[in-house]
Amino acid sequence: MIDINSIKVGWFLGYRQLKRASLWSNILIVAVMLLTFMNLVAVSGILVGLIEGSENANRNYYTSDVIVSTLKRTHETLENSDIK
């Protein structure tokens, strides 16, 4: 549950920062926070998408899926061969 005192303290500290600091200091703080947010949200999503896309392309166009299983009717195939 959210404590109302925590919200009041946060608003007070934010207001005091905006009132006492210089414009360029505030712009720098907002820019760093924006870049941090974009790094956590956007860049990680782009990187995950790039990796998934490269894995799918590699599987579809180069390596495929290799399935190894036992051959059915192995005995009949060897008996019916004409190789001597």
Give your account of this protein's structure.
The chain has 84 residues and is mainly alpha-helical.
- The rounded distance between the terminal residues' Cα atoms is 83 Å
> Could you name the ranges where pLDDT drops below 50 across 5 or more consecutive residues?
none
Helix content: over 70%
Average pLDDT number? 82
Instruction: Choose one word for the global shape.
Output: rod-shaped
The computed structural class is: mainly alpha
The proportion of strand residues reads under 5%
> Strand-and-helix sequence, N→C?
HHH
**Would you count the extended β strands for me?**
0
Q: Biggest β-sheet, characterized?
A: none
Radius of gyration: 31 Å
Give the count of helical stretches. Answer: 3
Quick description:
With 84 residues, the chain is mostly helical. It is 76% helix and 0% strand.
Keywords:
single chain, mainly alpha, 3 helices, 76% helix, rod-shaped
Q: Topology, pairings included?
A:
Blueprint lengths: L3 H17 L2 H41 L10 H6 L5
